[in-house]
Amino acid sequence: MSLTTCNVHFSQQSNKIVYLSSPLLKQLKLSGKKSVHLKLGNEVITAEIKQLKRQGNHLYLSAGVRQSIRVPKTGNVYVLNSGDNEVQLGPLVGILSDHSGRSVSNPFGAKTGFIKEIIRNGEHKAYLFGFTPGDINWHQQTINGYFLSAQGGWYRKIVPLPDVVYNRLTSRKAETSATINSLRERFVRRKIPFFNWSFFNKADVYKLLDNDPEALEHLPESISGPTADKMKEMLENHQFLYFKPTAGSLGIGIYRLTYHPKRGYFARYRKGSQNVLLRFTNFQSLMRMLQARHGSHLNRYVVQQGIRLIEIDSCPIDFRFHMHKNGKNEWVPAGICAKKAGRGSVTTHVKNGGSLMTPEQALGKTFGSQADTVLEKAKKASIKLSESIERNYPHRLGELGLDIGIDKDGEIWMFEANAKPGRSIYKHPALRAEGRASISYILEHCMYLSRFQGQGGNG
Ligand SMILES: Nc1ncnc2c1ncn2[C@@H]1O[C@H](COP(=O)(O)OP(=O)(O)O)[C@@H](O)[C@H]1O
Ligand SMILES: [Mg+2]
Predict the structure, then answer these.
(1) Do 445 and 324 form a contact (C-beta atoms < 8 A)?
(2) How far is residue 68's CA from residue 288's CA, in Å, rounded to a whole number?
(3) 424 CB less than 6 Å from ligand 1?
């Protein structure tokens, strides 16, 4: 195995000859060879090779070669001798999304900017493109991908099935459809790594970790689809609960429930742009309110022990740990942001009046000189939690957004894990470098998954 980069040129000859500069020929251990299997994504051709007396790493692909192997463009890219006289260009990386909210310049709607950023980051290193489920031709085994020009515009190119797929489909609902299920199965059957598999449900993640002591240590007690009796028992045990829709996000439909033996039951929630606080003298009237608002949807809720979070100005603070797998297949906390809840808000979402801060700002206030120690402990926990989720999950994971709480004793708690984390934390000016690092990890991990790695190196 040997990995290097080379400059790919297109020549106009109609024959099937690949010219390699002498240094490249040597590095790829092809000296003396007459022909080579040239691979791009899942496409392979056999071509004659010839040496070209030129400095540097150059590869010339004739029109004849390009007819059979669809190399999308000229310029720098990785080239790997994958053994057995096989040379692979790439990696060819597909970013899967959809057209929701599209326009001509934004083919992937609100996701367009993010996809552009990933593609730009991989320029001169890999072939990256965006695509939607409708762009795949399973019969031909090709994809009509969206590539980014040097000027920042989009152009279409038909390429083979990629070496790896990064899944950023945006619709929870579509993702559970038969079409998308079969799409995933088809990639997996062809041994094309696909990550992440799909959105998570809260209940599924809690269940996944139910037998994992390392993770359980950080999970508030959680019960999916609780009966009224169970809710009452939990309120008596903890006095403070969160009640959340299992497939929810953005804080929608969440209740903060508290019980004071003398004063009764309290429910706090968001209604439109208002924070509401209701008091009930008995448990039955609290349940009647929840039933009136949600009816049978209540069985798709989870109830969770409430955690007394650290606060600033009496507003609770929690944290987003954006986790990535790197080029060595290890989990790293790529970006960490603290979020302070808006006054009276049940959650810390910015949309609900919350604000972003650096973890140092947030922890300094409560823990003073111990802030660093607490942050280190939280980082270790975030890695352990990611490993536990991965260990117990049947599909491939390369990225996670963990919602982490830290209580007044410095204990670390996980409220939920997101499989398609948003990127709003990187809007904080202090987190720009972390935002770029997060993008780089995506490519690094794609390099790892597509086995574009040198001897002992991490690509
Ligand atoms: N068990 C809990 N204890 C304390 N706060 C919680 C708890 N569960 C959720 N929260 C708060 O509510 C926010 C939203 O909850 P989360 O489970 O992340 O749901 P969503 O999918 O809506 O983001 C969390 O970021 C945290 O601030
Ligand atoms: Mg959340």
Answers:
(1) yes
(2) 67
(3) no
Ligand index nearest the alpha carbon of residue 404? 1
Instruction: Identify the helix (H) or strand (E) that includes residue 185.
Output: helix 178-189
Nearest CA to ligand 1 atom 26: 347
What CATH number was assigned to the domain covering residues 2-90?
2.40.40.20
Express each pLDDT in 307-350 by its tens digit: 999 999 999 999 999 999 999 999 999 999 999 999 999 999 99
As a whole number of angstroms, the distance between CA 429 and CA 448 comes to 30
Residue type, 394: P
Q: How far is the CA of 347 from the centre of ligand 1 (A)?
A: 6
Residue type, 306: G
Whole-prediction pTM? 0.95
Q: Using most ligand atoms within 8 A of CB, pick from 415, 418, 425 the residue to mutate for ligand 1.
A: 415
Q: What's the CATH architecture for 93-195?
A: 3-Layer(aba) Sandwich (3.40)
Give the integer Cα–Cα distance in Å for 418 and 205: 9
Distance CA 422, CA 287 (A): 33
What's the CATH fold of domain 202-218+309-449? D-amino Acid Aminotransferase; Chain A, domain 1 (3.30.470)
**Backbone dihedral angles phi then psi of residue 61, each to the nearest 5 degrees:** -105, 120
Token duo for residue 409:
């004793």
Q: Domains of the chain: which residue ranges?
A: 2-90, 93-195, 202-218+309-449, 222-305
Atom of ligand 1 nearest to the CA of 306: 3
Ligand 1 neighbour 304 (Cβ under 6 A): yes
Hey, what are 274's tokens?
A: 């208002």
Indicate whether 459 pLDDT > 80.
no
